[in-house]
Amino acid sequence: MSYKNYKLVFCVVLSLFLNRNEAGAQVLGKQFPAIETSTANDIIINIPADTRGKYTLLGMAFSKKSEDDLNSWMEPVFWKFIHKPEGNATQLFAMTSYDVNAYFIPMFTGIKTAATRTAKKKAIKKMDPRLIPNILFYKGKLKPYKEALDFKQKDIPYFFVLDEHGKIVYATSGRYTDEKMVKIEEVISE
Fold first, then answer.
1. How confident is residue 180, by pLDDT bands cut at 50, 70 and 90?
2. What is the band of 103 on the pLDDT scale with cuts at 50, 70, 90?
3. Can you name the CATH fold of 26-189?
4. Of 12, 21, 32, 131, whose CA is between 20 and 30 Å from 3?
5. Running DSSP on this structure, what letter comes out for residue 48?
6. Cis upstream peptide for 48 (omega within 30°)
7. What is the dihedral of CA 133, 139, 140, 142, to 10 degrees?
């Protein structure tokens, strides 16, 4: 194989690797599509309309198999973005916390929409009560979001950081990693 062919093969492999690790790169800079969700207590939250004004981290999953990967994000996201230190630790608070919206959205589509009510009841019983306000439920069609957000694989969760105006500024997918969290923090801190 010639040097040019090796170079071409290297470029193709590198491109595939980068695209795999930068899930959702093609959605960056786009407006997040409007989605109506509800809390476990049936409070309606429209994204991005109701989250404008500050950064928003969204984790979305639409299959049972993606649940473990979605759950791998819950504790780190709670401690990084949801938990607020108590007491008079104003300086500590400023150094360790962010003023962002953070939501996890299980998506119930097709015949699974009938299970939404049951899933909400289970969430209230099983979940850490501190996380319940950050779990939003979507019931409806998947296709518009699958196309707009470039969901390529069914069995992994997708994560998006929206800016103050609802524009997608970062996207990733899969199980939690420290590297992904560092990138999210970098984007939110800019």
1. very high
2. very high
3. Glutaredoxin (3.40.30)
4. 21
5. T
6. yes
7. 70
User: What's the confidence (pLDDT) of residue 98?
Assistant: 83
Q: What is the DSSP string of 151-184?
A: ---TTS-EEEEE-TTSBEEEEEESS--HHHHHHH
Would you say the C-alpha torsion 106, 111, 117, 123 has a positive or negative sign?
A: negative
Within the chain, residue ranges assigned H as helices are 3-21, 67-77, 90-96, 116-126, 143-148, 178-189
Q: Which residues does 1 contact at the CB level (< 8 Å), separation at least 6?
A: 9
Residue 174 to residue 157: CA distance in whole angstroms: 5
> What are 11's two structure tokens?
């470029």
List the chain domain ranges. Answer: 26-189
